[in-house]
Amino acid sequence: MAVNMYDKQPDETLLQLIAAGDDVAFTIMYRRYEQHIREVALMYTKDPEASREIVQEVFRRIWEKREKLTEIKSLKDYLFIIARNLIFNQFKKAAQELAVRKQRLYETLETINDADFKVRNQECEFILNTAIASLPPQRKKIYQLAREKGLSYEEIATELRISRFTVKNQMVQALQSIRLYLLHHMHTLLPLLCISILG
Q: What is the model's pLDDT at position 28?
């Protein structure tokens, strides 16, 4: 079959060809659905790199189990189910890792003395201040008005002459940026201790 003829084939035919080991049909399927799966993964993970990995894993599994594709009724639905399960497993793994890290933090806090805690707390404050300083000007200003001066979103909106929605959105992004900064710039246990400062 000529390569250009593959593009015209329905999913059912592609499934039969892929099941028989046709790598050209597999490539056509990949081109047909790669973007859709990536967009779905990105919608849930909010992480472009994680989304690309999910896409690669979806099609890797399709190829490895290609002999069973003749049993599939809807290729699009089947691909979505695989992607959905991978996303769910990723979230589950992240939750388990966070639970382990929290448990280790609790165990560590039980063993450190007051002097140790003061040193760690000072380190947290230093890196936290660095994270805040790295925020875009408006976002940093909103964070400081809310956390350091205790202003409400309405008060901040009035002072900066922006909408309350903008204040809330910028505050959410500020907290996300700070948490990510802490997780990337500190030891395994310290970020959890510092994040607790954020409330």
A: 92
